[in-house]
Write a structure and sequence with these properties.
The chain has about 220 residues and is mainly beta. The protein has 2 domains: about 10-105, Thrombin, subunit H, CATH 2.40.10.220; about 115-185, Thrombin, subunit H (Beta Barrel), CATH 2.40.10.220. Helix content is about 10%, strand content about 45%. The chain contains 2 helices and 13 strands; from the N terminus they run βββββββαββββββα. The strands form 2 sheets. Strands 2-3-4-7-6-5 form a 6-stranded antiparallel β-barrel. Strands 8-9-10-13-12-11 form a 6-stranded antiparallel barrel. The protein is elongated, with a radius of gyration of 20 Å. It comes from Tsuneonella dongtanensis. InterPro entries: PilZ_domain.
Length: about 220
């Protein structure tokens, strides 16, 4: 009799764990966004099955509910916490999940860079001026801002705030009073993760494992 066999997508290794009835996949550094009541945070998927998932953060992972995991394809999955240990935590899925589709990163949209939605005030410095602006989202390579002053496309500037290390950037696009900025020097994933925790929930940085420098 031929048994059903689950094909393991590239980048994943099927592993067996005691008392687990569904196949569990150990993933190779798969970044995702964990959306919590206190904000949006970077996490790395360690392993996943149809019933649950374990994540590792660059700091302690946020508590509280609701929790939503957003993949780089934009797909979202509601989670409930099960256990936590240092910078690692385990969750169960609240809805049915197509595990092979999740591991293969198949979604309605192409895989894209993680962008964290957060809001804080900054100053933009250029041509001897400083003007106020509001950051609306941040990624490793750039940020979205709202600014009442007119900025030129390709305008070089510096972003100055008490939450983000001083960053040099250029204006890439404009839509009304919204602008997209591209950083001259990009953040590493760990730098972005620690910055997001600092800006949204600094208590998450209390563990010794979180000693990641934000210096550029």
């Amino acid at each position: 009799m031929e048994h059903n066999r689950i094909e393991v997508p590239p980048g994943a290794v099927a592993g067996s764990c005691e008392d687990r009835s569904s196949p569990r996949f150990t993933l190779l550094i798969r970044a995702a966004k964990l959306i919590a009541p206190t904000g949006e945070f970077i996490a790395v998927i360690r392993d996943v099955s149809e019933s649950g998932i374990s994540l590792r953060g660059f700091h302690q992972l946020p508590a509280g509910e609701p929790l939503v995991l957003e993949l780089q394809t934009g797909e979202r999955h509601r989670l409930a916490p099960v256990w936590g240990r240092g910078n690692e935590a385990g969750y169960r899925f609240l809805d049915e999940v197509d595990i092979v589709r999740l591991v293969a990163e198949a979604g309605r949209y192409p895989k894209r860079q993680l962008r964290l939605n957060m809001s804080f005030q900054v100053e933009l410095a250029f041509l001897g001026r400083r003007i106020p602006a509001e950051v609306t989202n941040v990624s490793q390579q750039g940020a979205g801002i709202i600014c009442g002053d007119l900025l030129a496309i390709q305008q070089p500037l510096r972003i100055i705030s008490d939450k983000l290390p001083e960053v040099r950037a250029r204006v890439r696009w404009r839509k009304g009073d919204g602008y997209g900025l591209a950083f001259d020097d990009t953040f590493s994933l760990s730098q972005l993760a620690v910055f997001a925790a600092t800006a949204q929930d600094a208590a998450l940085l209390g563990a010794p494992e979180c000693a990641v420098s934000l210096r550029r």
